[in-house]
Design goal:
Blueprint: H1 2-7, H2 9-25, H3 31-43, H4 48-65, H5 70-87, E1 104-109, H6 116-129, E2 134-139, H7 144-157, E3 161-163, H8 170-183, E4 188-193, H9 200-217, E5 224-230, H10 235-247, E6 252-256, H11 266-274, E7 278-282, E8 290-292, H12 295-303
Parallel strand pairs: 1-4, 1-5, 2-3, 2-4, 5-6, 6-7
Antiparallel strand pairs: 7-8
Helix pairs in contact: 2-3, 3-4, 5-12, 6-7, 8-9, 10-11
The structure holds guanosine-5'-diphosphate.
EC number: 3.6.5.4
Keywords: Cell membrane, Cytoplasm, GTP-binding, Hydrolase, Membrane, Nucleotide-binding, Receptor
Membrane topology: Peripheral membrane protein
Length: 304
Amino acid sequence: EQKYDQGLAKSRKTFGERLNALFANFRSVDEDFFDDLEETLIGADVGFDMAVEITDELREEVKLQNVKEPTEVAQTIVQKLVDRYEQDGSNEQNAIRFASEGPTVILFVGVNGAGKTTTIGKLAHQYRQAGHKVLLAAADTFRAAATEQLQVWGERADAPVVAGKPQGDPAAVVYDAVERAKAENYDILLVDTAGRLQNKVNLMNELDKIKRVITRSIPHAPQEVLLVLDSTTGQNALIQAKEFNDTTQVTGIVLTKLDGTAKGGIVLAIRHELHIPVKLVGLGEQIDDLQDFKPNEFVYGLFK
Ligand code: GDP
């Protein structure tokens, strides 16, 4: 929880400071106040529509309840954002789903540099610490460095890596990994994939093929298709989420680099537009810097 606070320090400083300044600078809750509030929300990347909606709702409530003090509005804003997150997908699971028997397969997708390999390393470490048998698959066969990097993380986390020939078929690597996971009774298989954007159609076909190979070997797998997004890219992350979700059914989002951004509001925008739950958040480059996503803590941390 302390880590959560530290990770969000930068978000809080910029966005939180703006909010605090807003409450300090305004003596009354007037139209200028609402304009400033709306701008602050847009700046935090909650998305234009949501910023306008929340401000409108607030304007209405303030009128009905005859609120005069800006500080009285603060708590209402925080509560509204938490409610927003929950209302946009209350019947979805926030936690990672596991297979009831046999290996659980988690497929990681996302553009290069988003943090896929790092997240897999961190997650492998968590599961190993919890006593699970974990296998990794390096299905980005186009970049030699990608496989090497996964191997480095595999060693750190104490999880073996299945890799293929350079330029080989990524689906073949995944096939080998799934078969090994079954034969050697692994609990969890984490699959790293390519994220080159130069040829999107090719990439999406490749991901689709990988997914089919997994399902053919294990009927209910993959249990999760996690899209890894770099939160510092703000609204671009939302565009990427839409593109990936159109072709591979994404079951959850990993939002990385929340330790280095003032744009944490993107969590709400993604949830609102795509109804996909954020399952994990990356809060740094170290092996322990990965946490389950908790909407309440997150929103309060952001707006404190
Ligand atoms: P991939 O290409 O999607 O596999 O991305 P990588 O896992 O190689 O990560 C790209 C860069 O982002 C690396 O330098 C990582 O150390 C860094 N990175 C990943 N996750 C985080 C995070 O949560 N916080 C910070 N600050 N850096 C991260």
